[in-house]
Here is the input.
Amino acid sequence: MTTFKEIRGTAIQVVSSDPSNPEEGQIWYNSSSGTLKGYQLANVNTWASGGNLNTARVNSAGTGTQTAGLLFGGSVPPYTNASESYNGTSWTSTSSLNTARGILASGTAGTQTAGIAFGGVTTPAPSAATEKYNGTTWTSVTSMNTARYGLGGAGTQTAALAFGGSPPSAGVTTTELYNGTSWTSNPTGLGTARYDMGFCGTQTAALGFGGYSNGAVANTELFNGSSWTAGPSMPITKYAVRGFGTQTAAISAGGATPNSGITNVISWNGSAWTNTTALTTARAGTGGIGTQTAGLVGGGGGSPLSIATTEEWTGVGLATKTITVS
Here is the structure.
């Protein structure tokens, strides 16, 4: 019979305290606690401080990953066209958007070198402007059919989705699809007209949650490429909420309820929302980037009005776990 030492190349040690730098898959017996332990992937659910944005802002949008992210637009105030890239440690200013705007949307499944921004609000009106980023510069392309701010976004630079928003002062259900060249109105819109919502996913598997519709709402809706379906509501009503992830594995971070930033964080598994570890800093209208296992939020509104701090999320990571018969 193969032994653990033959598999891992190490023996199960007897120690009086847990190792300070264990290796993944390492197992040991802690004689002080009388427990068998191992170092393995586990649900960590923690927030840690990341690098500060160069431009403090609220109501920005983002795309990419925790170690290769892109955040753009927002309000300082006034509205900004500033764009920044993140390498997992620090933010670097990049070429600016052509149109300064806030409460805009993005293709949340895009990358740091292939991003897309659309909609938002300028002075003094909602915008339909669409721009693409190639890793060096932003280029204006065909605008959306409906100008709006506070809209939801999903997808990539060549397959994006825009939904909801305000044109202004009232939520809409309008949904549009982008094919890399032009926007097309989708026959079926959101079930609940709203704006300032959370969003993530792809053009054929998107998630929209929370927002404002004559007050903060908790509604969740899922898009399958052609129509929207109502899902279970969040356990809290909030707007100016942002998130990251996919239609089946997402994080809803921060928001406002009703008039100030909050630290609330909720995890979505594709069928239900669960409260999880709160943000360190209360914030609304933050920029969300990444996945349910490794994401971040940058900036947002709180105290002061616009903040520059970043918090990094680890949903699954290496951790010491006690081994039991179960």
The chain has two domains: 4-44+316-322, 51-308. DSSP finds one helix and 26 strands in the chain. The radius of gyration is 21 Å.
